[in-house]
Amino acid sequence: MQSREEKVRKGEWEARIADLKYTLHLFRKNPLVMIGTIITLFFVALALLSNIIVDPNLAYASGYEGGMYRFDRKYMWSAGHIINWGPGISIYSGPEFFYLGTDGWGRDLLAMIILSIPVDLYNAVVIVSIAAVFGTLIGAIAGYVGGIFDEAILRITDIFFAFPGLVLALVFAAMFGRTMETLQLAIVLVWWPPYVRLIRGQILSEKEKPYVEALRALGASHIRILFRHVLLNSIFPILVQITMDLGGVILTFSALMFLGFSPSPSMPELGNLAADGYGHIFDAPWVMIFPGLVMLVISLAFNLVGDGLRDVLDPRLRR
Amino acid sequence: MKSPATYTESELGNEELLTVKGFKVWFPIKSGVFQRTIGHVKAVDGVSFAVKKGETLGVVGESGSGKTTLARGILRLVKPTSGEVLFEGINVAKASRKEIKLVRRKMQIIFQDPYASLDPRQTISSTLYEAMKIHGIVQNKPEATKKALELLEKVGLSQEHLYRFPHEFSGGQRQRISVARALAVNPAFLVLDEPTSFLDVSVQASVLNLMKDLQKDLGLTYLFITHNLAVVHHMSDRIAVMYLGKIVELADKDSIYHDPKHPYTFQLMSAIPLPDPEAKKKEVLLEGDVPSPVDIPPGCRFHPRCQYATEKCKKAEPKLAKINGHLAACYYEIDFSTGKVIGEKADE
Amino acid sequence: MAEKRAESQPVLEIRNLKVNFSTYKGIVKALNGVDLKLYSREVLALVGESGCGKSVTAQTLIGLLPENASILEGEMILNGKNLTKKSKEEMRMLRAQAIAIVFQDPMTFLNPVLTIETQLEEVFMLQKNLLREAVAIQKAEGDVKFADLIKAKSAGSSQTDKGASKKETKKVAKKLSIDLLRMVKLPDPKRILKQYPFELSGGMRQRAMIAMAFARRPSLFIADEITTALDVTIQAQILHLLKGLRDRIDASTLMITHDLSVAAEVADRIAVMYGGNIVETALTRALFRKPFHPYTQMLLRAIPNILNPVERLESIPGTVPEMINPPPGCRFHPRCPHAMEICKGERPKLLEVEKKHEVACYLY
Questions:
Q1: Are B105 and A219 inside 8 Å of each other by CB?
Q2: Which residue from C106, C313, C139, C87 is spatially nearest to C205, judged by alpha carbons?
Q3: In DSSP terms, which residues pair with B263 in a beta bridge?
Q4: Domain segments of chain B as ranges
Q5: Which one of A4, A291, A313, B199 is CB 3.0 to 4.6 Å from A273, fit for a cystine?
């Protein structure tokens, strides 16, 4: 019996591997998607290794003295550019070379950008996970159960849809102070309703399928049917949405930081860095351009991956 | 509610496995802002019959006849409106949750669509294992695998199919898997809802053979629902003909074909295309469309399309009454070969 | 009667048609050299199980193959014109004038937002010549019926009123629409015209589809599983209709079905298809009385027959061949009880074994 079982077990692995191969094949077919995936993976690697690549101490502004930053400006590429910042602040052109120039605190911009990637990605992941899990669960139960519960959930999500994220963040910041957690909460509250709608639509159509009826005829409980069958079969659009949302949330998050919701103005974060450069857009444009560019690339990459996932998963369902 | 005595057949001392009395399944039609019920779709509108242990009762009808709803109603997959469905002492129509779970093990169903009856993300082994787990048929995984392999063998599949996904199988093979899943819980009664409609002729033949073999080996009782009259004749012992939610005729298979007593049955039988171009057929066509159960005609449901209809037929519904062990719901006795009405049933 | 119908020159001839589809898993050799002849005014049933290629044959005939399909070799000749050599534009014109097709699900063909009237009249309005002919006939004889137009076409005559005004043609189009609907036995045609497709039942929709198909006076009428989705009594009505129309419409019908019993009802001749090939063609009676090909024989024994009930149906061992790697030679040989060595070699060609009865098998 043992060897027979083993032989049969191998069959299962082969089936799943063949399944995966087919997915990868479809993935590979689209060059844009491949680019997006590579870029995304690159950034993830960067995020994980950021502390090794760059010395985190660089994030500390030089010359901070209780309330007032003393500027220690270094300039991009060429020397000899002098800006008068006012009394008491010294300016000079130093011997160091920075690939992307410096930010307003004189820190290496490239290093700051690298240090900010894990911050952004981490926050994006946290926010999207909470929104997705919460929204999906609620939407799944609402869609499956139907009736008054479903109606109630729909109305509640309608209310949340109407919230302007910015105002909400403002209110939260005012009420609870400017911390990472309040910012995350504010964004989660605005981002979870689409998941409810998305999963609900899928569940509504999935639960009418014959195999669900077959499971009921077998005597399966509703909980089993919902969580082990219907939900799993409906999950693909959610995965696509999660990928796209990761890009979107990074933008939203950075935007809020840009608008001044950051807990600390010198924290390395893409939006923060861009905010810093906003005031000097004409004489030191690089401070704003490069973080912005990085934001663009990251969210574009996520979008491409999400797009690719959608294309891959759709024809597959037609098998 | 009609008197049950006229309908149950307990001849031959054969024990009845399933007894259905006055069974109705109505679906409310809701409309308006407040979703008020403005009417009902009377899919099944008072059906009574019994299935004896070990027999195959065929149920035929066209769209709108209610046969599919009947299948689901008996198993409580849709909510019954009234009536009784007695199975091993339990009234399925009004059973408690615990009782339903018991019933679910003994009464199983094979669905029409082999492509959608199986969860596409589950391997066959997982599907079978789950069925067994729900009813506690096995205690552990090795036992389940052993039983699964036995089941596969019984339905004509081999062990290498165990860890495959449904989409790797053909329609006929998937139906076999559905059968294996149904058998996994050791049922006594199987409802077959158009099990071969989506299959090719040759595949259908092998699946039907399988069902017959299994019935003999395991002593199963079948309720075979289909619109294919040739198939139902091949598979059944007795056949019930449904029209607009009611049984209009119920008899053994040969009588239904060669000696129908209800005008609708006769029309149905003459409409079957025969695989024999030389067979003599009466060219009598049924006019009009198959009606919908939303708008049921008064009196006898069939009267608008019946060439023998009289005033009496428009007023009140004829009941299923016995003529020589053959049940038919018609006021008249008609000799269809000549088209003459030869008798009239006495009013009750 | 059927013998009289099969005249010498076939209206449609398909010779050695080979069609491939390229898919992810490989090349599907759907049609493997199809040989078929359809004669004037006859009903030929193309019978086969799923995967045998009968629908692909229909799609190739009307030139609506999907992107990944390619015709490898072979020819299709309709009324002397070689269809395989035609461009997309030419095929479109042909579809409008000479070939009509009705599918299983009429809803896919009927525009759900237009009334039947609009759609039927549209078909007529696209045929200015037909309408001009009709106006001419009306002016000459005082009234025009659709049947007159059919007679005119088959007689080859073409009286036409070139100066027919738009108003006249529109009026005559409406009249012909009603006439056509009456021909397909739709009750109360004037009311039906005003209705939308979803308001009609399945059977009525099929009749409307058939009407729209015949509105073009096609030489070739393809019916692709048109009764499969219908109830038995409705199917009987439609088959009865087709039998009645056969004598009034000057067209040849290719009836595609998987149901041999349906073929027995309406067809003059039957062609049995398996694995991308025609394996047997015969007059209907001859096919049932004396099937030659092993597949046909086994197929007939697999059908439950009320007049001849059996205990067990005979099923065909094995499964339908996978068209990516089909068996060499005769595609049926792995499942054939009479398979010989020669069957694995080259594919057997269709040979006439009895009068008007062809089989592709090495047994003969």
A1: yes
A2: C106
A3: none
A4: 14-30+39-243
A5: A291
Angstrom distance (rounded) from CA B177 to CA B125: 10
**B312-339 pLDDT, tens per residue?**
888 888 888 877 778 888 888 888 777 7
How confident is the model over A5-23, as a mean pLDDT? 64
Q: Is residue C364 part of a domain?
A: no
Asked if the model's pLDDT at residue B193 lies above 90, the reply is: yes
Q: Is the separation of the CB atoms in A272 and A189 below 8 Å?
A: no
Q: C244: domain CATH number?
A: 3.40.50.300
- CA dihedral of A65, A69, A70, A74, whole degrees rounded to 10: 130
The residue written with tokens 């307003």 in the block is A104
- Alpha-carbon distance of A94 to A75, in angstroms, equals 7
Q: For residue A125, give the amino acid letter.
A: V
Query: Which of residues A98 and C10 earns the better pLDDT score?
Result: C10
Kindly state whether residues C187 and C335 are assigned to the same domain. no
Tell me the helix, strand and coil percentages in chain A, rounded to 5.
75, 5, 25
Q: What are the chain B neighbours of A219 within 8 Å (beta carbons)? A: 100-101, 104-105, 134-135, 185
Q: Is the ipTM of this complex over 0.90?
A: no
Tokens of B38: 């403005």
Counted domains in chain C: 2
Are the beta carbons of B163 and A12 separated by less than 8 Å? yes
- Give percent above pLDDT 70 in chain B: 93
Phi, psi dihedrals of residue B38, rounded to the nearest 5°: -105, -5
In chain B, what residues touch A12 (CB-CB under 8 Å)? 123, 125, 163
Its CATH class, for the domain covering B14-30+39-243, is alpha beta
Q: Which residue range(s) make up the domain with C302? A: 2-98+219-359
Q: Residues C203, C228: one domain?
A: no
User: Is C223 found in the same domain as C346?
Assistant: yes
Both C130 and C240 in one domain: the answer is no
Across the interface, whether the CB atoms of C233 and B203 are under 8 A apart is answered: no
What lies within 8 Å, CB to CB, of B267 at 6+ separation is B284, B286, C233
User: Domain ends where: C187, C209, C231?
Assistant: C209
Interatomic CA distance for residues B6 and A305, integer angstroms: 68
What is residue A93's predicted lDDT score, i.e. its pLDDT? Answer: 40
Q: Which of C209, C236, C262 is the last residue of a domain?
A: C209
Whether B172 contacts B208, CB under 8 Å:
no
Interface test with A, best of B99, B103, B113, B119 (most A CBs within 10 A): B119
**B159/B1 Cα distance (integer angstroms):** 52
